[in-house]
Amino acid sequence: MSLFIGLGLSFGGGLRVLSALGAPTNWIVDIIVSGLIISGGTEGINSIMKYLGYSKEKEKANAAAAKEEAGEAALKKIA
């Protein structure tokens, strides 16, 4: 029953998880995956939120590393 509700919300309500994450997928695949995630209830949504949190932390670490490398390069240029 929850799968049908999830698919209904995904198709009828336009709730598309993969497109919100920026994944280039076919709309049919997006509807099916979104329906499965929504049908999982809070656990499925929680998994998506954890993934987004991990992605955000990874981007912060990459930005900090790039900033540090740029600073070191600038110091070498001055010296």
Supply database-style keywords:
elongated; mainly alpha
Secondary-structure-based class equals: mainly alpha
Distance between the termini: 68 Å
Number of helices: 4
> Unreliable stretches, pLDDT < 50, 5 or more residues?
none
* Anisotropy-based shape: elongated
The SSE string, one letter per element, is: HHHH
Q: What percentage of residues falls in helices of 4 or more residues? A: over 70%
**What's the β-strand tally?**
0
Sheet with the most strands?
Answer: none
Mean pLDDT: 77
Number of individual domains: 2
Strand portion, in percent? Answer: under 5%
Integer-rounded radius of gyration: 20 Å
Set out the fold topology:
Elements: H1 2-12, H2 17-21, H3 27-39, H4 42-78
Helix pairs in contact: 1-3
Write a concise synopsis of the structure shown.
It contains four helices and no strands.
Question: What does it look like?
Answer:
With 79 residues, the chain is mainly alpha-helical. The chain folds into two domains: 1-40, no CATH class; 42-79. 84% of the residues lie in helices and 0% in strands. It has helices at 2-12, 17-21, 27-39, 42-78. α1 packs across α3. It is elongated. The mean pLDDT is 77.
